[in-house]
Amino acid sequence: MKQWVMAKHPKGLVKPKDFRLEEVPIPIPGEGEVLVKTLYLGVAPVMLRYMTNETSFERPMGIGDVMIGRGVGMVMESHSPAFKKGDLLQTKLGWREYAIIKDDPYYMTYKMQSKDLNPSFGVGALGMNGFTAVIGMRDICKVKAGDTVLVSGAAGSVGSMAGYVAKALGCRKLVGIAGGKEKCQLLLDKLGYDIALDYKQPGLYEQLDVHFPNGIDVFFDNVGGELLDEVLGRITRRARIAICGRISEYLIPPEEYHRPKNMYRIGLKDAKMEGFFVYDYQEHYPEYELQLATWIREGKLIPLEDIGYGLEAMPEALISLYKGTNGGTRMVKVAD
Ligand SMILES: NC(=O)c1ccc[n+]([C@@H]2O[C@H](COP(=O)([O-])OP(=O)(O)OC[C@H]3O[C@@H](n4cnc5c(N)ncnc54)[C@H](OP(=O)(O)O)[C@@H]3O)[C@@H](O)[C@H]2O)c1
Known about the structure:
This protein is an alpha/beta fold. It folds into two domains: 2-124 and 304-333, Quinone Oxidoreductase, Chain A, domain 1 (Alpha-Beta Complex); 128-279, NAD(P)-binding Rossmann-like Domain (Rossmann fold), CATH 3.40.50.720. It is built from nine helices and 15 strands. Strands 3, 4, 5, 6, 7, 14 and 15 form a seven-stranded mixed beta sheet that branches. It has a six-stranded parallel beta sheet with strand order 10-9-8-11-12-13, with helices on both faces. Strands 1-2 form a two-stranded antiparallel ribbon.
């Protein structure tokens, strides 16, 4: 079977030469272990920080280690009472065609329930990114009918789902920010946004004034930095802000992070701003999956998937996130 290992710690943006493809035998599961066949693998901006050992929640990576990553796989052989053959798992498979996993909290394994829906949804809509959208939009921002809602990174995996969640909850106006004409068109045509703003064009903040004449009730932020600061300057009384990510600052040193000038407005406007991490909400995953699967079956959420084919496509899939060339959930189909 094939697997990708880290050939170098990346410097700046990830590059193809930071990875090496290897051929190794399919592993044999021992006592308490499970052999899983990889069907789909996802990519996430955080993976670059795994490779540079910048996260506190993932084990350090050395040269030659299999690339860390989550995906959806099927149990082929089980020597663990926790799993049975045929189970569909979202887990830390790594970038490889077969993986051995254990019933261990490290793997953060989630057994999928919605077997009538496409297993690829386990990478996006019915996986961590969909769950992230529900936590941020529904549980932190408590979107309700009449709210005006803004999403940054709106055409990405989390952002595309966040928009659908806001609409399903009855928001009045949904505005998304994305990079480039094509992505903005995607927001309007495929992702249910009412207005799409291109941050790569001049005048973004003036556009916010035009489209939110009475202010922003809810902001789901994937980008951080100066944009967050400008939004703070435009919030309504009792506004809610979910800090999901800050991709605009992942590739720059801390001394270059934007220093917000509008933070005082949280107090002035009796607003709420909350960061969150999807893995802290594990006990709620079955309920999130049920809710999202219901919206999918009702046609209220149409997952937008951006699929590459074959394990060989993994490095390019990850690189595309930083180049912004993905639309919706970027993933790779590894096997049927
Ligand atoms: N809190 C949590 O538990 C949690 C869970 C999952 C993900 N996240 C965070 O959510 C965010 C989105 O993750 P995702 O997996 O859905 O990725 P994604 O949005 O599918 O892909 C990343 C997108 O970010 C945009 N981008 C890249 N560089 C940017 C920059 N300098 N400024 C503004 N936008 C930039 C690009 O879109 P454009 O072309 O539109 O710029 C790119 O397509 C990330 O910040 C991630 O860390 C948080």
